[in-house]
Amino acid sequence: MSNSPSQNHDNGVEQFRHHPSAPPHESFDVSTTVDPAYVISLIRKLLPSDAKYGERANGNGLIREESRAAGITQDAANLPENGGESATMQSSDNGQEKQNGCQSGGESAGEQAWEECGCILWDLAASEDHAQFMVQNLILEVLLASLTVSRSLRMTEISLGIIGNIACQEDSRKHIASVNGLVGVIVEQLFQDDVSCLCEACRVLTVCLRGDEGVIWAEALQPEHILSRILWIAENALNPLLIEKSVGLLLAILESPPEVAEILIRRLLNMRISSLLIRLLAFEMGKLKEDRTPERYSVLDLILRAIEELSTMDNYSVETSENKELLQLVKDLIELPDNFEVASSCVTATVLIANLLTDATHLASELSQDLNFLQGLFDVFPFASEDTEAQSAIWSIISRILTALQEREMTPSMLNFLVSVLASKLDLIEDELLAHPVDHGEQSTDTSGANIDARLISMTRISDVLSYWKLSDESVKNTSFAEGCSINKEDVDKLLDHCRKASR
């Protein structure tokens, strides 16, 4: 959830510390942080001066049309002059909200006044009580009129921002879809060419798709030219925040309940959403290797989550698992040095890889030839300490890789490197076994129907490898291998003991 942006979007966000007091001449004697009459006066000041005709920007340029809000102006002009039952509402700070930043320069005095009022309402809408009160006093109808006739991108951004914050309040969100024409006007804002407006439009759609009225929004998004526009924004945006918001919208569609999914997902699959997401992943991985930029970390994670969602879909997961570029990209992420900065993405990547291996078991043999990947995989464990699914995914991958590796077929240098990797993870494996002892009665089922325990298989295979190495000739043990790596024999003995006990 976000609120109105600071004056400089690149300067981060500031927390909204307080709500404004009503001007003395508009104050009622009520015990609320924000005078309801003041809120109503702010809503009234958002009424467009001419709500009958106006120009509106879309993907084909400026068009002129009759306002769908022609009848709204009179209703909104008759807004009540008192707070009624809502006078008991309380204001509250929300740590996730951004402070508004009313901008000035170039616009008329009327536009400046509109912006100042809009920014205050944008912040107030972050409070559930305020949002409900504003909806009861026709804020949505007023914003529909404003969006329909406005030629100001800043006014459009603020209008969408207010709606976005209202949408984050569950009880208020359902009213958005009930305002005749508002859903369509919001969807049309996807054809703006302004980054801030597009970010807010994507945010509104993302939140509303996840609500109880998701089907209404899905039906509004289903025309091919609208879905194509969303994909185009995601692929062509240069602003990290806009990429995040557009990919977040795609993820919301992919994660949507069945009744919403059946309207949109098949169309997106036919439009090659997977190819788009892999291209975006390749771009973000390139950026990550060039320069660690924190503002891009969330983008990377959203892309991976979207691809992971695709990898679980029937009739489509196999296609994803056969994509060589995708496998290489997630391998690169896991093997990335100092990847704690993108820990969440690494955890998501392991779940994705586990899904890929479920549909393409032959990939385990390919992964087993890259012991740097196995080493990186162990390093993801601390990031997944609170994620049972991710821990299971990591053990599943490790068990498949170790099963594909046959110690008797390894070269001496590869065997030594594998033993070095395993022994270096003694403390990690020991902690994992202490926290989650192997339950020999616990069984899971793989795709072939066989009952397995990935950790039990992993412990057995580690024990086999270490035992084979200990019985090898000294010439094998003394063979040089990866630069900078060594084998601590005491660690080998301790790990072997742990694994033997766990696999009995």
Automatic annotation (TrEMBL):
Annotated compartments: Nucleus
Xref: Gene3D superfamilies: Leucine-rich Repeat Variant
Predominant localisation class: nucleus
Listed transmembrane segments: none
SUPFAM superfamilies referenced in this protein's UniProt entry, alphabetically: ARM repeat (SSF48371)
Start-end of Polar residues biased regions: 1-10, 85-102
GO CC annotation: nucleus
Annotated keywords: Nucleus
Chain positions covered by the region annotation Disordered: 1-30, 76-107
Sequence similarity: Belongs to the SAAL1 family.
PANTHER family noted in UniProt: PROTEIN SAAL1, SERUM AMYLOID A
Designated name of the protein: ARM repeat superfamily protein
Organism: Perilla frutescens var. hirtella
Lineage of the organism: Eukaryota, Viridiplantae, Streptophyta, Embryophyta, Tracheophyta
